[in-house]
Amino acid sequence: LRSKPAEIETLSYSVVRKISGTGNETSIFNDGTAELRKYGAFQSISCPLDSNDFSLKTMGAGLNELSSYLLLGNNEESTIMTMTTPFIITKGAEHPSMMSLMLPKEFADSPPAPEMSSEIEVELCPETVVATASFSGICTDQEIERQVAKLMDIIENDDTLQIKSDSAEPEIMVMQYNAPGTVPWRRRNDISIVVEEQLINDESVSTDEEATAVDVDEIAAVTDTVHNLDTTIDEVSATEKADTIVDEISAVEEVDASVEETVVTEEAESSTNEVAVVEEANTTAEKTDIEVDDSIV
Q1: Sign of the C-alpha dihedral computed for residues 102, 106, 107 and 108 taken in this order
Q2: Above pLDDT 90, what percent of the chain?
Q3: Is the pTM of this model over 0.70?
């Protein structure tokens, strides 16, 4: 009844980050988020499916083929291996749907060759980055279409991601973790689309950072210019004040000089007047003496 089977080797991945969607009715989860996951390279076994339909008949035939290779030892070495999870159905526009399983790590370095009559292929799946969302229930064509539309909506609303595909339609991977008899509300299903982060966005971020750096430099230059201008204005003001003080001192000195000259002139005039008075007095005295002498005679 577990949504994630216990004690079964499971394909591992790392979550790069959450992907935010639009938050409306087309979102996978109520909060409108999915996950950007990175799957490391792993050895897998795969077989083609008879139909592109997500029907129990189609999926059951593929699962029987793969489990017989693992659990029943239907391989060239008759090696019996353990089952792994999830089983992955890959659906693309230009090739038939395939079902695959991760090979147990114990046999990853030297996997047994499939029987000559088998359609099973052993191949190395490369490292892959995918946008992934989980949902419960039974995988039907209608449910897969609905979930794909929702996940596409989330990817298209994330400016950092673009779908990676060699054709017009994306490659869809449906991962199912539970045995066929698991009740629907306990089933865990992942739907994934291969994506890549857009390099143009990185360049845009770099451009924005460079523009910000230029703006900061320009602001600093303007600030320095204003500071220098303020300093120059202060120096000019100080010079003008000094010149004004010098002019005031010169004016005071000129006034003092004029006053001194006036005083000297007045003193000179006063001395001249005094000499004239003395001379007049002497003249008068002389006249008096002459008149006295004439009277005596």
Answers
A1: positive
A2: 42
A3: no
